[in-house]
Amino acid sequence: MRATLKWTSGLQFVAQTDEAPAIVLDSTDGKSGPTPMQMLLMGVAGCTAMDVVSIMTKKRADLTDFQIVIYGVMAEKNPKRFTDIEIEYLFFGNGLKESDAQRAIELSEQKYCSAAASVNANISHSFKLLPPEEANR
Fold first, then answer.
1. Residue 118: closest CA among 85, 73, 69
2. Given CA atoms 52, 57, 63, 64 in this order, what sign does their dihedral have?
3. Deepest of 19, 52, 94, 105, by most Cβ within 10 A of its Cβ?
4. What is the rounded CA–CA span in Å between residue 121 and residue 104?
5. Are residues 23 and 87 in the same domain?
6. What pLDDT does residue 135 have?
7. 27 and 80 assigned to the same domain
8. Are residues 29 and 41 in the same domain?
9. Is the distance from CB of 32 to CB of 49 less than 8 angstroms?
10. Residue range(s) defining the domain that contains residue 15
């Protein structure tokens, strides 16, 4: 895996991998893109989301939508790393089983999610099973 980063101005950078479109990284002051720490949080969310959706699909769950809300708590002193991460999984569909959702989350957390395994933080989760019509609220 390879990525490049090019400084544009201030604390703004354009980042790109060989396989994907470029993205802008910025500071909280610049606001033209996510900060590196926000990207890290989104990376953990994206990694576990891909695992969970893949597992639920293999279980033939009637998943009509899926969302993650992720919260990161950072240390107050440098390095201001994530100390705690809370992941809320929102499953939307018909006839979804708690046991399937819980197992998909466990497999992601314990076996598959490389991004979460790479972060030195306490990671906890919660989940909700919701009807499809609540997905767009």
1. 85
2. positive
3. 52
4. 21
5. no
6. 86
7. no
8. no
9. no
10. 1-33
pLDDT digits (tens, 9 = 90+) for 5-46: 999 999 999 999 999 999 999 999 999 999 999 999 999 999
Q: Which residue type sits at 72? A: G
Residues 27 and 40 in one domain: no
Cα 105–chain centre separation: 13
List helix spans (H) across the chain. Answer: 36-58, 98-107, 114-118
88 secondary structure, DSSP code: E
Say if pTM beats, i.e. exceeds, 0.85: yes
pLDDT in tens, 91-107: 999 999 999 999 999 99
Number of independent structural domains in the chain: 2
**8 A C-beta contact, residue 121 and residue 74:** no
